Amino acid sequence: MKKQFLLSLIALGLASPFITVVYAQEKVAVLSTQEFITSCKSPASSESRSFCLGYATGLYDTYLVTRHPSIAKPFICVKQPGPTRDTVISDFVKWAEGKPALLNSPAADSALRYLAERFPCPA
Fold first, then answer.
1. How far does Cα 50 stand from its chain's mean position?
2. Of 7, 75, 76, 92, which has the fewest Cβ atoms less than 10 A away?
3. Under 8 Å CB-to-CB from 99, ≥6 apart: which residues?
4. Cβ proximity of 121 and 76 under 8 Å
5. Please, which residues have CB within 8 angstroms of residue 117's CB and are 6 or more apart in sequence?
6. How does DSSP assign 57-98, residue by residue?
């Protein structure tokens, strides 16, 4: 039993560099701003709405947990009580549609640009 386990570990160890190479060559599709606003403009579909809210919430939560006073100072400051998610998303869609140059850029970049413009931190 121990011999089989040891052989399995060795085989896995020999195969892992090849597995890593396959994953490293895989292209990961980045959500574009156009794709994101399309999903956010489709409130009739529960899947689109769930995706839109989940992506927006995850993006903002990630922003919040990556801030550190000495390394990554905040650039988005939402005064409380803040607006509703639906209001912010609706405003983002209008803002992004008015900036055609951003439609093919990553959705996360555009959303953070919008939030920084809409909710700037005091200087």
1. 14
2. 7
3. 110
4. yes
5. 95
6. HHHHHHHHHT-BTTTB---B-PPSSPPPHHHHHHHHHHHHHT
Torsion of the alpha carbons at 100, 103, 107 and 113, rounded to the nearest 10: -20
Q: pTM of the full predicted structure? A: 0.73
Q: How far apart are CA 107 and CA 56, in angstroms?
A: 10
| Band of residue 41 on the pLDDT scale cut at 50, 70, 90 | confident
Q: Are 33 and 107 in contact (CB under 8 A)?
A: yes
Residues 6+ apart with CB under 8 A from 119: 76, 77, 78, 79
What phi, psi does 100 have (nearest 5°)?
Answer: -55, -25
What is the pLDDT, as a whole number, of residue 17? 57
| 14 against 57, higher pLDDT | 57
Could you tell me the sign of the dihedral formed by the alpha carbons of 70, 120, 66, 83, in that order? positive
